[in-house]
Design goal:
- The chain is α/β, with parallel strands linked by helices.
- Helix content is about 35%, strand content about 15%.
- The chain contains 8 helices and 7 strands.
- The protein has a 7-stranded parallel β-sheet with strand order 1-2-3-4-5-6-7.
- β1, α1 and β2 form a beta-alpha-beta unit.
- α6 crosses α7.
- The longest helix is centred in the N-terminal third of the chain and has 14 residues.
- The two termini are about 25 Å apart.
- The relative contact order is 0.17.
- The mean pLDDT is about 95.
């Protein structure tokens, strides 16, 4: 669903990267919703890990989110998934039925079969053009782990693709990514952002005061 955040008030006071006890998180959907209300958040976006072969029932996950929407009407709650890029064509490790049931899809690079920069850039461009993708999660983490260096021109090209294909760039708090140079170029080019804690427990969830400070830094770069 391209443009799924366009109607949200800016700056967006929400956490857009959350993992629950359905996979490697410690806490339930309801526990996150309780904490989100305490933390003064308006929006909560669950981005549970997925694979083509799931170890849990995705419909149960969606059902719990539906219940949470009824129990916490003050929150705007999104049901999403985090899917890894698996090849140079930008395909994702996720079933199409899961994609179709989500409010958003976050594409990430975890383990990837090609470890050199040219292949990564090819795969990234393809993933950003993938019509199923809404958010690029923990951007440049694979670059950092592989020890690549992206030139300003390469960064500008990546951001141009994000803007053209309406891809939202996640500012990931856990990994402190992307870096300042990337953010400055992205802001100059008019990229869209959300903040994500990459929370695996309720204590890691972002709060309103934290988000207000973070957004002020980004707004100053535009």
């Amino acid at each position: 669903m391209k443009g799924f955040i366009d109607d949200l008030a800016f700056p967006i006071l929400g956490d857009f990267h959350i993992h629950t006890s359905y996979t490697d998180g410690a806490d339930t959907i309801d526990a996150y919703c309780q904490r989100a209300r305490t933390n003064g958040l308006n929006h909560l976006a669950f981005s549970e890990h997925v694979r083509k072969k799931l170890s849990y029932d995705f419909n149960d996950y969606l059902s719990e989110i539906a219940v949470a929407r009824e129990n916490y009407p003050v929150l705007s709650i999104f049901a999403g998934c985090e899917a890894k890029v698996i090849d140079r064509s930008g395909n994702l490790d996720v079933q199409k039925s899961v994609i179709n049931s989500c409010d958003f899809v976050t594409a990430v690079f975890h383990s990837f079969p090609c470890s050199y920069k040219e292949a990564y850039l090819e795969a990234l461009e393809a993933a950003l053009k993938n019509p199923d993708v809404n958010i690029w999660g923990h951007p440049t983490l694979f670059v950092k782990r592989q020890g690549f260096q992206l030139s300003p021109g390469e960064i500008a090209g990546i951001i141009e693709t994000c803007v053209r294909y309406d891809i939202i760039i996640e500012i990931n708090i856990k990994y402190d990514l992307p870096d300042l140079e990337f953010l400055k170029i992205a802001c100059k080019e008019g990229a869209k952002f959300v903040f994500g804690s990459d929370a695996h427990a309720v204590d890691e969830l972002l709060d309103k005061n934290q988000l207000v400070k973070l957004w002020k830094k980004i707004i100053q770069m535009y």
